[in-house]
Design a protein that fits this description.
Protein name: Anoctamin
Shape: elongated
Subcellular location: Cell membrane; Membrane
GO molecular function: chloride channel activity; protein dimerization activity
Helix content: 55-70%
Strand content: 5-15%
Main location: membrane
Largest sheet: 2 strands, antiparallel
GO cellular component, one term: plasma membrane
Radius of gyration: 33 Å
Strand order of the largest sheet: 1-2
Length: 716
C-alpha cells in the first residue's frame, strides 16, 4: 500500500495498544503526484506593478505586522511537469511544495492505494479501513503547539502565528491573514473565511443595497484573492465514492416517503404553534390583566404587556425549541436519502446534500415567519362571520397596529436564539470533549508526548467539513434579507454575530481541531446559486411585506385618492380621517347566538352600544352589499400589486446594471493571467530549445538526432 511513500510505525506513549504510522513522501514522489494533480507551482516572480486602491489604503492599517507574518511573495505559476523541473522557481526543495500540497498529495495516494486483492475483487482506499476500524484516524500534523512557539529552527510556527494574530480575542480588530490561512489549511477553508469576511463587511451596508452587491462583489474579490489557483484543473482530483453506481437502486421510494414525512412534520409543527397561539391568546385575554393588577411591582409594565405580546413571545420561544429539535431529525434523514442516491463523486454528494438540507432548513426556520407575514390576519372574516380552524378555533387576527411587531419579535427571538445556541455548541462542545479526553489519557510528567499523539487528542474535522458552517451563514443570510423590511436591525445583529463567528471558527480550527486535509476549491460551490436564489426571493418577500403587512399602501391610497373628491368632500390631499376610513362598522344585533363573544371576556360596554368598529374595508350595515368588500379595498389591492411589480422591476434592473458594471474578473487580474500564460509558453519553449541544443552537442546517429528533434518539437 506504499505507492512510493515511506511508512514508519511508532508505539504510542499514552496507550500501548495504539501504533501510529507516519507517512513521508520523498521529493521524487511529490513531483510525480504534483504532475498528476496538475498543481500550479511558481515559475517566476510577479513583475507586474501592484495596484493600490482606496480600500487597501484604509485596511492596510488593520493587517498583522509584516514583521510577524511576512507578506507572501507573488509568482506567475504553471501546472507542474516533472520533466521540466528546471523551468520552475525551485529555491529550496524542502520548501518547494507547501505542507498543504504535501498533505493533499498524501491523501490522494492513500485514498487510492490498494490494500487487498482477492481474485477479481480489488479493495482500495484507506477510508474503508477507517470505516472498518482498522485505523482509528488519519490526519495531517499541526506544525507546533498553538500557544508556545517551537524552538526548532525548521518549524515555521504557522499555527502559533495564526492563533496570536487571527484566533486570539486581542486580534478581533485585525484583518484576516488569508494567505497564511490558505497555505496552512488549504484553499477550501481559506475561501470559506474569505467569503465570511466579505459577507461580514457587506452587512455593514444597507441590506436592500447589499443583496445584489454581496453576490456580485464577492465574485470579484474571490477571483483576486485566489488568483494563484483559479485556473487549476481538477483532473483526477475527485474520489469515486461508489464504483457500482451503474446498478439501479430502489432509493426513490424511501426518498419520496421521507420527503413527504418531513413536509407533514413541518406542517404539523406550524399548525401546533398556531393552535397554541389561539389557545393562549384566549387565556391571556381573560387572566393577564387581572394578574397584573394584583401585582403592584408589575404595574409599570401593564400597558406594554398585552395578550398579543405575551402570546407572541412565548410562541416564538416554543417555535425556536421545535426548530432546534427538528434540525437534528432533518439532518439525519437528509444524509440517509443522499446515501441512498449513491452519488459518484464527493462533489456530487456534497451538492445533493446541500440542496436537501437547505430546503428542509428553509421551511423549518422560515415557515412560522412566512405565516405571520403573509397569512396571519388575512383570512379572518368579519365579526358576524368569522373563519374557524378545525371548526373550533377562530383564525388569528393581527394586533390593531398590524403584524409587523409580531413578525419582528419572531425574527429577533429565532435569529438571536439560533446564533447563541450555535456559538455555545461551537465553543463548549469541542473544548469539553478535548478536556475529557486529556483527563482520561493522562501520563506521567517525565514522558514527552509527540506531536502526532497531541493532535490525536483533538477533535476530528468530520466528513462534511465546512458544510455546517456554510449552512449556518446561509440561513442567517435568509433572515437578514428575506424579512429586513420588518426587522431592520437584522443586519446589525448578524454583523455582531459574524465578528464573533470568525474568531470562534479560527479558535476552533487552530486549537481544538485536528488539522484538516487540504482540498481544492475555486468557489463556494453549490452555496453560490442558493445565495442568488435567496437574494432574488428576498426582493419579492420584502416588497410583499411592505405592501401587504404594513399600512404604507392603504395610507398612500387614502392620501392620493380617497381624501379628495369624489370620495371625500375635501379639495386638498390630507391624512385627516384615515383612521375612520380604515375601520368598518358592524351592527351588534347581527351576531348570531353561537358566534357572540363569550360572557366571561365580554367588555362591560358591549351591551350598551348598537354598533362596533373593526379593521377592514367593508360596506356598513344597511348597504345593499353590506359587509362585502368596498371599492376602497379593491383600490388598495390594486395599489399593493402595482407597488410589488414596480419595486421588483426597479431592484432587478439595478441588479442587472450592477452585474454589467462589475466584471467577474477584474482587469488587473486579466492582465496577470495573460502575462502568466505568455511567460509559461516562453519559458517552456526556451527550456526545450536549450535541452535540444545540449542533446545535439552529444554524439549520435542522424536517426537518433531526428528522433530527438521530433520529440522536442512535439513538446514545444
Amino acid at each position: 500500500m506504499n505507492m512510493g511513500v515511506e511508512l514508519e510505525a511508532t508505539q504510542s506513549v499514552v496507550d500501548e495498544k495504539l501504533i501510529y504510522v507516519k507517512v513521508h513522501m520523498p521529493f521524487e514522489v511529490l513531483c510525480t503526484y504534483a504532475e498528476v494533480l496538475h498543481i500550479k507551482l511558481p515559475i517566476k516572480p510577479n513583475d507586474l506593478a501592484p495596484q493600490s486602491s482606496t480600500y487597501n489604503c484604509f485596511t492596510r492599517h488593520f493587517y498583522p505586522s509584516e514583521d510577524v507574518i511576512a507578506k507572501e511573495p507573488e509568482f506567475f505559476t504553471a501546472p507542474f511537469r516533472k520533466d521540466q523541473l528546471k523551468c520552475f522557481f525551485v529555491k529550496d526543495k524542502e520548501q518547494f511544495f507547501t505542507p498543504a500540497m504535501r498533505s493533499r498529495m498524501a491523501y490522494y495516494i492513500l485514498s487510492r492505494a490498494p490494500y487487498e486483492v482477492r481474485g477479481n475483487v480489488k479493495k482500495f482506499g484507506f477510508n474503508k479501513l477507517l470505516d472498518g476500524g482498522v485505523y482509528k484516524a488519519a490526519y495531517p500534523l499541526h506544525d507546533c503547539r498553538f500557544n508556545v512557539k517551537s524552538k526548532e529552527p525548521s518549524c515555521p510556527n504557522e499555527r502559533f502565528l495564526l492563533f496570536n494574530e487571527w484566533a486570539h480575542p486581542k486580534s478581533f480588530y485585525k484583518m484576516q491573514p488569508l494567505d497564511l490561512i490558505r497555505c496552512y489549511f488549504g484553499e477550501k477553508i481559506g475561501i470559506y473565511f474569505a467569503w465570511l469576511g466579505f459577507y461580514t463587511v457587506m452587512l455593514t451596508l444597507a441590506a436592500a443595497v447589499g443583496l445584489c452587491c454581496f453576490i456580485y462583489g464577492y465574485t470579484t474579490r474571490e477571483s483576486s484573492t485566489w488568483s494563484k489557483e483559479v485556473c487549476d484543473p481538477q483532473i483526477g482530483g475527485e474520489i469515486i465514492m461508489c464504483p457500482q453506481c451503474d446498478k439501479i437502486c430502489p432509493y426513490w421510494r424511501l426518498n419520496s416517503t421521507c420527503e413527504s414525512s418531513k413536509v407533514l412534520l413541518i406542517i404539523a409543527s406550524v399548525v401546533g404553534v398556531i393552535v397554541y397561539r389561539l389557545a393562549m391568546f384566549i387565556t391571556f385575554s381573560s387572566n393577564l390583566h387581572s394578574h397584573l393588577n394584583n401585582r403592584k411591582e408589575l404595574e409599570p409594565f401593564k400597558e406594554y404587556v398585552t395578550p398579543q405580546m405575551a402570546t407572541s413571545i412565548t410562541a416564538s420561544f416554543i417555535s425556536l425549541i421545535i426548530i432546534m429539535i427538528l434540525n437534528n431529525v432533518y439532518e439525519k434523514v437528509a444524509i440517509l436519502i443522499t446515501d441512498f442516491e449513491l452519488p459518484r463523486t464527493k462533489t456530487e454528494y456534497e451538492n445533493s446534500l446541500t440542496l436537501k438540507m437547505f430546503l428542509f432548513q428553509f421551511v423549518n426556520y422560515y415557515s412560522s415567519c412566512f405565516y405571520i407575514a403573509f397569512f396571519k390576519g388575512k383570512v379572518v372574516g368579519y365579526p358576524g362571520e368569522p373563519v374557524y380552524w378545525l371548526g373550533t378555533f377562530r383564525n388569528e387576527e393581527c394586533d390593531p397596529g398590524g403584524c409587523l411587531t409580531e413578525l419582528t419579535t419572531q425574527l429577533s427571538i429565532i435569529m438571536t436564539g439560533k446564533a447563541i445556541w450555535n456559538n455555545i455548541q461551537e465553543v463548549l462542545l469541542p473544548w469539553l470533549k478535548n478536556l475529557m479526553f486529556r483527563h482520561c489519557t493522562q501520563v506521567s510528567s517525565e514522558k514527552v508526548i509527540p506531536r502526532w499523539e497531541q493532535d490525536y487528542q483533538l477533535q476530528p474535522m468530520g466528513k462534511l467539513g465546512l458544510f455546517y458552517e456554510y449552512l449556518e451563514m446561509v440561513i442567517q443570510f435568509g433572515f437578514v434579507t428575506l424579512f429586513v423590511a420588518s426587522f431592520p436591525l437584522a443586519p446589525l445583529l448578524a454583523l455582531f454575530n459574524n465578528l464573533c463567528e470568525i474568531r470562534i471558527d479560527a479558535w476552533k480550527y487552530t486549537t481544538q481541531s485536528r488539522r484538516a486535509v487540504p482540498e481544492k476549491a475555486q468557489d463556494i460551490g453549490a452555496w453560490q446559486p442558493i445565495l442568488q436564489g435567496v437574494a432574488i426571493l428576498a426582493v419579492a418577500t420584502n416588497a410583499a411585506i411592505i405592501a401587504f403587512t404594513s399600512d404604507m399602501i392603504p395610507r398612500l391610497v387614502y392620501y392620493w385618492a380617497f381624501s379628495v373628491s369624489p370620495y371625500s368632500g375635501g379639495s386638498e390631499h390630507t391624512m385627516a380621517g384615515y383612521i375612520n376610513s380604515s375601520l368598518s362598522v358592524f351592527n351588534i344585533s347581527h351576531f348570531i347566538e353561537m358566534k357572540r363573544p363569550n360572557e366571561e371576556i365580554t367588555p362591560y360596554w358591549f351591551n350598551n352600544i348598537t354598533t362596533c368598529r373593526y379593521r377592514d374595508f367593508r360596506h356598513p350595515p344597511g348597504h345593499p352589499n353590506q359587509y362585502d368588500f368596498s371599492i376602497y379595498y379593491w383600490h388598495v389591492i390594486a395599489a399593493k400589486l402595482a407597488f410589488m411589480i414596480v419595486l421588483e422591476h426597479i431592484v432587478y434592473f439595478t441588479k442587472f446594471i450592477l452585474s454589467y458594471m462589475i466584471p467577474d474578473v477584474p482587469e488587473a487580474l486579466k492582465e496577470q493571467i495573460k502575462r502568466e500564460r505568455y511567460l509559461t509558453q516562453v519559458i517552456l519553449h526556451e527550456t526545450n530549445i536549450q535541452h535540444f541544443k545540449e542533446l545535439m552537442k552529444g554524439e549520435g546517429s542522424s536517426t537518433t538526432k531526428f528522433n530527438i528533434f521530433r520529440n522536442c518539437t512535439l513538446w514545444v
